[in-house]
Amino acid sequence: MQRLLKEIELHSRKLPDEIQQEVLDFIKLKERTLAKAQKEKIEVSMLSEQAMSDWANEEEDEAWSSFQ
Hints:
By secondary structure, the protein is mostly helical. The protein contains 3 helices and no strands. It is rod-shaped and about 70 Å long.
């Protein structure tokens, strides 16, 4: 990871300021995209957990027992 950061820094120093700003903007966009994806993943997990809790009861176990 450290090597990669150094390589990025080395290459970015050669770029004009405007391009460096574009690179920074791209990195920030990627951070937001990753944060949004992580948030959505957590939300789906929470919704799945809630839905499954409705099925976790003796009545459901009995209804499905013949399929085991």
